[in-house]
Amino acid sequence: MRILLYVLMAAAVAGGLGSCKQGAKDNASVQAAEEDEGKYFSITEYLEGQAELQKDQPYVLLKVVEKDGRSDSSYVEVNKDFFKELGTYFAPTDISDVILKDKYQVEQSHDSGNEMLFLYYNALDKDLLTQKVELGIHDETYKILSVYIETRKSGLFRSRATKLNYNTEKSIVIQEYEKSLFSDPVTTVIKYYYNY
Fold it and tell me: Are 137 and 16 spatial neighbours (Cβ–Cβ below 8 Å)?
């Protein structure tokens, strides 16, 4: 069962990174991922794949930042700098390092009505930065349609939590909650919309 789960995860990663133009590359990615069954989903590789797929597309996203009851919006180009900025939020949450192999409980479910496969990674240790990763995968194409990540880091004087949601070519939402012993809690929400 566990091997099947790793194979499905490998196929899902390859499906999320690939497109019809990349058939041969996808097969190589699946083979490589199957051989390295000790790894969990890599958000870093996923973002690199999304950057590659969207690099020549004329996307401009609506960015909305909400903080302290105020809202500001602007337009941003989907380019290398955009994915570099996303990486500052998403890359630290990557759970694909082999040392994390047994640190997460992995479960799956299938929604046949919506043709979706869901993979859930839940941290077994409350001190790990990344507490939860959920993937929504189309069950025929194995394309990753959504990635949801929760993090939590607690310190003596300050705690911080984030919720990251990447809905492929729809929206990206970054929610940050910070609480300090010496100041009021701060909530920052950054939203990127593909269709606005």
Answer: yes
pTM: 0.80
What is the pLDDT of the chain when averaged over all its residues?
83
Total structural domains within the chain: 1
How far is Cα 72 from Cα 65, in angstroms, rounded to an integer? 5
Instruction: Tell me the residue range of the domain where 56 lies.
Output: 2-193
In angstroms, rounded to a whole number, what is the distance separating the alpha carbons of residues 157 and 139? 44
Average pLDDT over residues 129-154: 95
39: pLDDT strictly greater than 90: no
Match 């994915």 to its residue by tokens. Answer: 83
Nearest-angstrom CA–CA distance, 190 and 134 = 20
- Cβ-in-10-Å burial (0-12, 13-18, 19+) of 23 comes to exposed
